[in-house]
Each structure stands twice: as structure tokens, then as C-alpha cells.
Amino acid sequence: MSIRLRHLAIAIALLLLLAGVGVWLFVYLGIYNVAATRQHIPIVYQLLDYAMFRSVAAESKDITAPKDLHEPRRIRAGVATYREQCLQCHGAPAVSPGALAFGMSPAPVNLLSAAREWESKHIFWVVKHGAKMTGMPAWEYRLTDEQIWDVVAFVKAMAAM
After folding, report:
1. Suppose 88 and one of 18, 98, 116, 137 were both cysteines; which one would form an S-S bond, judging by CB atoms 3.0 to 4.6 Å apart?
2. Cα separation of 77 and 31, whole Å?
């Protein structure tokens, strides 16, 4: 190995060590406020959103959405389940979330934007499996797959309301 490469490797190792010590001090000294009444700084949200989208896309790659998601009976069934299980945190068009949602950090996502930006299979996966450290529960043990698809049908329909 040439002297130049060796110096570069040492410099990179020192930078990584310094960054690691900096992160450790940041955590150890309690500098980052984890209170639910304080939202994360923008870069934390960007990192979490990116990590969540990549994870959901990878985990849901083998899911196929039913062809009848646009049928009125499925959407009506989704409305009933959504009203009972989701409304208190996510709200709905012209319906504000419940008081509990305003104390959550991160705040529950606006499902209108999720309905427009995410594929049905991605929404299904998140509803079924939940999302760590977001307050989003896994509905896998409380709802059937059919009920979850009904909710997905309603969420996708909400984007047009």
C-alpha cells in the first residue's frame, strides 16, 4: 500500500472515530429532546421517511392488491373499519383527528397524501404490520386481511374526496 493510500485510510478512520465519539456524546449528554411535545428536526423526519419508504417497498414486494379495491361495497366496508380504528389518529376529509393524536410524536401522517403517493400494497403492509416508534399499531392480529384491504380501498378513495 502506498504512503498516500495509507494516509487516506488513516484519515478516514480518524474521521469515523471522531463522528462516532460525537454521536455518542450527543446521546450521552441528552442533547436531543425526546419529549412528545417537541417534533423532530427536519433532517430526522427526512431520514425516517426515507427509511420507512425503502423498508415498506422491500417488505411488500410480493403483495398483490385485489382488483376490486374501487368497488363501492369494499369502500363502504372500509369506511366502517376506518371510523372505528383509524379516525381518532388520522382524521378524515373535513374531520379532525382526536385529541390523542395531537400529543403524538411524530404526528400521525395525513392519509390523503399517503393515498396519493403510496401504492395500495404499501398501505396494506403498513396497516397490517404497523411502524416502529410512530404509534402506528400492527392490525394483523385484530383485523383480517379482507378488513385491511377494505381500509386500503377507503384510504385510496379518500384521495378523491
Report:
1. 98
2. 47
Contact 127, 65 (CB under 8 A): no
- Count Cβ atoms within 10 A of the Cβ of residue 138 and give its class: 0-12 exposed, 13-18 middle, 19 or more buried: middle
List the beta bridge partners of residue 136: 131
Is the alpha carbon torsion for 35, 41, 43, 49 positive or negative? positive
Which of 54, 135, 138, 56 minimizes the C-alpha distance to 97? 135
Model confidence pLDDT, tens digit, residues 99-142: 989 888 888 988 988 899 999 999 999 999 999 988 899 999 99
User: Tell me, what's the pLDDT at 36?
Assistant: 77
Closest CA to 115 of 145, 70, 81, 83: 70
This prediction's pTM: 0.81
Which cell goes with 161? 374526496
